[in-house]
Amino acid sequence: MVASISIKLFIKKSEYEIVSTTDSLVFDFNPEGYTNSTTTIAERLWKDKNNSNISLSTNNTFDWVHGGWGYDDTEKAPYFCIKAGSRATINYSLFD
User: Fold this and answer.
1) Which end of the chain has a smaller Cβ tally under 10 Å, C or N?
2) Which residues of the chain have pLDDT under 50?
3) Which residues are CB-neighbours of 41 under 8 A, at least 6 positions away?
């Protein structure tokens, strides 16, 4: 026996505009435009566009096959994934 139910949804546009915060932003770790398919690891590593001293580094055994840059088709958004055993570091100290 299979049961089903119908649910009516009334969707209304929100009155709020959701945008990225920029007030007091030190750096923006934005995965847009990065990919694992670049030739060298150096090309894959993120660098802040406004401050070249802030960048991403990974350990020598970083899993670029199952981790790294990707794209979530459901969310329609890029992401950066760190798998177990891998390490990624952004050289910025939050509490100095």
Assistant:
1) N
2) none
3) 58, 64
